[in-house]
């Protein structure tokens, strides 16, 4: 009885290398920086002019009035009003 037996050596090196390579590639893909997307807003020239003309005149008038009071030594801070505004602001935020 002459049976022929064939032996084959199995080395798991290729399987380990393949798994390691896949894991390394996944890590590298995750580490690549993504392109930062930026929001863009376009405001028409007409809107810019409307915004500046309305605010500038009103703000300038308030600033000028305050500056005159400060220069004349007549500007006084109402501490209670300031404290009340702080209280309202922080109370609204909960």
Automatic annotation (TrEMBL):
Residues 1-39 are annotated as: Disordered. The keyword Transferase does not apply. Residues 10-20 have a biased composition (Basic residues). Residues 21-30 have a biased composition (Polar residues). Residues 39-85 form the Anti-sigma-28 factor FlgM C-terminal domain. One of its GO terms (biological process) is negative regulation of DNA-templated transcription. SUPFAM superfamilies: Anti-sigma factor FlgM. Keywords: Bacterial flagellum biogenesis, Cell projection, Cilium, Flagellum, Repressor, Transcription, Transcription regulation. It holds the Pfam family FlgM. It comes from the Bacteria. Belongs to the FlgM family. This is Negative regulator of flagellin synthesis. It comes from Salicibibacter kimchii.
């Amino acid at each position: 009885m002459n049976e022929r037996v064939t032996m084959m050596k199995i080395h798991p090196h290729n399987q380990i290398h393949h798994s390691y390579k896949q894991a390394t590639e996944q890590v590298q893909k995750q580490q690549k920086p993504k392109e930062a997307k930026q929001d863009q807003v376009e405001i028409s020239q007409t809107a810019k002019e409307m915004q500046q003309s309305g605010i500038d005149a009103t703000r300038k008038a308030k600033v000028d009035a305050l500056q005159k009071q400060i220069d004349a030594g007549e500007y006084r801070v109402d501490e209670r009003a300031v404290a009340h505004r702080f209280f309202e602001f922080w109370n609204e935020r909960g």
